[in-house]
Write a structure and sequence with these properties.
Blueprint: H1 2-8, H2 14-23, H3 25-31, H4 41-50, H5 54-60, E1 66-74, E2 84-91, E3 94-101, H6 106-115, E4 123-126, H7 133-141, E5 145-148, H8 155-167
Parallel strand pairs: 1-4, 4-5
Antiparallel strand pairs: 1-2, 2-3
Length: 181
């Protein structure tokens, strides 16, 4: 589960995956009966090797199928002393889109950026600054799926998500299931 979710979240490498698992430990412990402490990089690597998961993990998110959108502050980039704000779209190792924005205005800038990108069939990841209904709608309009981060300062959204997950029974509480359901 950790390997799958961390790969979808954009983690590459065992150290990044272990850091991601540790950062999300509270969430996992509430909904999954997995561990007492998050696994380390070596444990994750050995697990992937023992179950021959590397090809599977590599296939989950191909380099050209996921677009990561993030804002950047460029300090000292100009002689005017101003801090410049940008929103960039990365696909693999390439910058595929870039727009300038003002401080704290990432949402509208992300919408502008997304409108110019070919996203059909891709997964778009965006940090919490872009987690708005308008951004989600803009991504879906372009035919993509999205993975949006939610921070504690987005309390109404976070509470709604917690309620949704709390209302669903945990899989490990249901006993064995036949497949297909």
């Amino acid at each position: 589960m950790i390997l799958l979710l961390s790969r979808i979240a954009g983690c590459r490498g065992w150290d990044a995956t272990a850091d991601w698992a540790e950062a999300h430990d509270d969430l996992f412990c509430r909904h999954l009966d997995l561990w007492k402490a998050p696994p380390g990089a070596d444990t994750l690597r050995r697990t992937a090797e023992a179950y021959a998961l590397q090809d599977f993990l590599d296939a989950i998110v191909a380099e050209d199928e996921t677009v990561h959108i993030d804002g950047k502050r460029l300090r000292g980039a100009g002689r005017d002393g101003k801090v410049h704000h940008l929103v960039e779209a990365l696909c693999g190792n390439r910058v595929i889109g870039l727009v300038a924005t003002g401080a704290g205005a990432e949402g509208p800038a992300i919408q502008e950026l997304v409108a110019d990108l070919e996203l059909a069939g891709r997964l778009v990841t965006i940090d919490a600054a872009g987690t708005t209904p308008a951004v989600a709608a803009a991504v879906r309009t372009r035919g993509a799926d999205f993975l949006l981060a939610v921070e504690p300062n987005q309390s109404a959204l976070l509470d709604a998500m917690k309620q949704t997950f709390d209302d669903r029974p945990c899989l490990h509480d249901q006993g064995p299931r036949a497949w297909p359901p």
